[in-house]
């Protein structure tokens, strides 16, 4: 039932008509439900529905079993079957498990932010524009997912995170690492540009950006050029690390990725866009000038 969600949105100032239109819910039945007294059982179910809905919004890849784990961890006593029933009633399914007609591409998610950089991959100072994206690679243990954050000013990878699952927490961890690595610097107002992946549209990611005063930005659907500067880094990573050998464990690949970024990409790979300097050299030389500006 979406009515509790609509009521919560209304308390946050979002008109009921807007919420009903977006959620494809008729207004009159909602108002009838709103006028009816709610008993303890229905109140508990509404709270449970709201908790499941929030968990699903945070990580759309979660199936009902993982959602059940999440809501139980938040204090709700509920069986997997009950969570499945609520998910079924509201159409909350793992994004990768939805059945689609043969040859039909997945419908892209709505952008959580406007495209604020519009392929202008330049920055006059540090912490003005960060780019982020996620890539994956197989090991004998299973896939390893890598999220990186690059400061467009120096092309330095200032944030990174790895995980065996591609969830919103992966993107959040990379951004948190970037903020910590720029420790003491004022990152408020910095644009964080990504594609429309569900990890970057998740509520966890939005809360992370808001907490640090960062500004979200998203490219268009199916247009790799809208985040080309980040794609070029992952292409280098693919050719220089990921595709060089068969990786037995996730830890083995993780260590190889971090070593290549810190030893080679940051300190040995000179870039034409930086005047044939490495990212570390560029930051070392330009930081005093940036501080004086």
What overall geometry do the principal axes of the alpha carbons give?
elongated
Supply the CATH architecture of the largest domain.
Answer: 2-Layer Sandwich
The fourth-level CATH homologous superfamily of the largest domain is Ribonuclease H-like superfamily/Ribonuclease H
Count of domains? 2
What's the end-to-end separation, in Å?
A: 55 Å
Q: What's the CATH topology label of the largest domain? A: Nucleotidyltransferase, domain 5
Write down how many β-strands occur, each being a DSSP E stretch of 2 or more residues.
5
Helical percentage: 40-55%
Main beta sheet strand tally, sense and closure: 5 strands, mixed
Order of strands in the sheet with most strands:
3-2-1-4-5
Strand content: 5-15%
Uncertain regions: pLDDT < 50 for 5+ in a row? 98-106, 289-293
Structural class by SSE content: alpha/beta
Query: How are helices and strands ordered from N to C?
Result: HHHHHHEEEHEHHEHHH
Rounded radius of gyration (Å): 22 Å
Count of individual helical segments: 12
Q: Average the pLDDT over all residues and give the rounded result.
A: 83
Any idea of the CATH class of the largest domain?
Alpha Beta
Brief descriptors of the model:
single chain; 293 residues; alpha/beta; Nucleotidyltransferase, domain 5; 2 domains; 12 helices; 5 strands; 47% helix; elongated; disordered C terminus
């Amino acid at each position: 039932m979406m009515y509790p969600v609509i009521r919560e949105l209304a308390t946050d100032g979002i008109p009921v008509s807007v919420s009903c239109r977006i959620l494809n819910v008729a207004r009159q039945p909602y108002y009838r439900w709103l006028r009816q007294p709610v008993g303890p059982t229905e109140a508990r179910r509404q709270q449970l529905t709201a908790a499941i809905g929030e968990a699903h919004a945070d990580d759309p890849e979660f199936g009902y079993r993982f959602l059940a784990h999440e809501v139980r961890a938040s204090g709700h006593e509920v069986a997997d079957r009950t969570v499945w029933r609520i998910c079924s009633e509201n159409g909350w399914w793992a994004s990768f498990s939805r059945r689609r007609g043969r040859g039909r591409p997945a419908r892209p998610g709505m952008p959580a932010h406007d495209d604020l950089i519009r392929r202008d991959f330049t920055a006059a100072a540090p912490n003005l524009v960060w780019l982020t994206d996620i890539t994956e690679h197989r090991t004998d243990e299973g896939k390893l997912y890598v999220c990186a954050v690059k400061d467009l000013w120096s092309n330095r990878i200032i944030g990174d995170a790895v995980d065996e699952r591609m969830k919103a927490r992966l993107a959040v961890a990379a951004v948190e690492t970037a903020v910590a690595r720029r420790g003491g610097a004022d990152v408020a107002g910095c644009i964080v540009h990504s594609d429309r992946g569900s990890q970057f549209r998740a509520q966890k990611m939005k809360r992370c950006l808001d907490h640090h005063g960062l500004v979200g930005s998203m490219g268009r659907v199916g247009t790799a050029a809208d985040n080309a500067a980040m794609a070029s880094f992952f292409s280098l990573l693919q050719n220089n690390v990921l595709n060089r050998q068969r990786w037995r464990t996730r830890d083995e690949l993780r260590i190889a990725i971090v070593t290549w970024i810190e030893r080679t990409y940051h300190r040995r790979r000179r870039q034409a866009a930086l005047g044939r300097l490495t990212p570390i050299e560029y930051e070392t030389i330009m930081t005093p000038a940036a501080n004086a500006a």
